[in-house]
Amino acid sequence: MMQIKARPIVCRHLDEMWKPILNAPFGRDLELAVLDEDGVHALVFPCRRVGEGWKNVATGARVDIRPTHWRDWAMERTLNDDDGLQPGR
């Protein structure tokens, strides 16, 4: 199984930075957030919304996830960027 979580995060001002998944556009590189039993996580790779769900932009592989929020993927974003997210404690 492919690891899809970047890191646990605590989203500060979630409504200001992340958009609800229902509004996610098709055909754009997006950063996705998922919620599971361990908390909220940002994926480590950009995804694109397609008719049948989500695909990894780099590989074209289908990604079997149920994201809750999205924002545009920023090429310069790294695992150390704050971007309004803080590593879980």
UniProtKB/TrEMBL annotation:
It comes from the Bacteria. This is Uncharacterized protein. It comes from Mesorhizobium japonicum.
